[in-house]
Amino acid sequence: MHLTDVTFRYRRRSRPILDRVTAGLAPGDVVELTGSNGAGKSTLLRLLAGLTRPSSGTVTARPAVVGYAPDRLPTAQPFTVAQYLTHHQRIRGCASWRPWAACGSCPRCGTGCFPTARSLSSTAGPTASPATPSSK
């Protein structure tokens, strides 16, 4: 998936939440986005998932399956984020959202491995770094 000069604004003349972001993600990449409140983390994830369109720029080569969990689940939701994604994978008959799960050779936890993660950093917006396997 490729983002090329992606800018996002909530209103036509408002300040950009994301400004000319260019990045690439390979299939199976896992990233962790960090940033302060309002930095654009959730907006970037919605753009990557195809739930929101950029104000300008392009998002290309989006795979048919993109695992996305909203940052706010209903309080009565009986799922963790992993259970939520697994449940939606099951009911939609999609490919696995966990590309590392089948490997079984992760030196950190022994249960799976993470492909090389790519940076999605920008000067004003969210930053990304490789995710580490959880113990669950």
Mind sketching the topology for me?
Layout lengths: L1 E7 L9 E7 L6 E4 L6 H9 L6 E5 L20 H12 L34 E4 L6
Antiparallel strand pairs: 1-2, 1-4, 3-5
Task: Briefly characterize the structure.
With 136 residues, the chain is α+β, with helices and mostly antiparallel strands.
Descriptive report:
With about 140 residues, this protein is α+β, with helices and mostly antiparallel strands. It has one domain. The longest helix is centred in the middle third of the chain and has 12 residues. This is ABC transporter domain-containing protein. Keywords: Transport. Pfam families: ABC_tran. It comes from Nonomuraea longicatena.
What spatial form do the alpha-carbon principal axes imply?
A: globular
The overall number of domains is 1
Name the helicity range: 10-25%
Oligomer: single chain
Strand content: 15-25%
Question: What is the makeup of the main sheet?
Answer: 3 strands, antiparallel
Overall average pLDDT: 73
Strand order of the biggest β-sheet: 2-1-4
Distance between the termini: 28 Å
Q: Count of DSSP E strands? A: 5
> What structural category characterises the helix and strand content?
alpha+beta
Order of helices and strands: EEEHEHE
| Low-pLDDT windows of residues | 102-124, 129-136
Q: Over all CA atoms, what is the radius of gyration?
A: 16 Å
Number of helices: 2
Keywords: Transport
Protein name: ABC transporter domain-containing protein
Family: Belongs to the ABC transporter superfamily.
Pfam families: ABC_tran
